[in-house]
Specification:
With 71 residues, this protein is an all-alpha fold. Helix content is 86%, strand content 0%.
């Protein structure tokens, strides 16, 4: 291959940049914050308030589901 060394250089530099970004995110605690936010989001989505809000925003959900079942 004519440009193999160029592709290898690009791959090495890309891997170094990606690794440094991961290291930075680990050092600042990014993943811990994301885990907490995602768990809070899931808890909210499963709460009765969120279910009531979904029903209020789409009152035709059950009608559409029943129409598909009867078809």
């Amino acid at each position: 291959m004519k440009f193999l060394d160029w592709y290898v250089k690009i791959a090495v530099v890309s891997a170094a940049i990606g690794g440094s970004m991961e290291y930075f995110m680990i050092k600042i605690g990014f993943f811990d914050k994301v885990i907490v936010l995602e768990s809070e989001k899931k808890a909210w989505e499963n709460s009765p308030e969120a279910q009531a809000m979904r029903e209020a925003l789409n009152p035709w959900r059950n009608i559409d589901a029943n129409a598909k079942k009867s078809s």
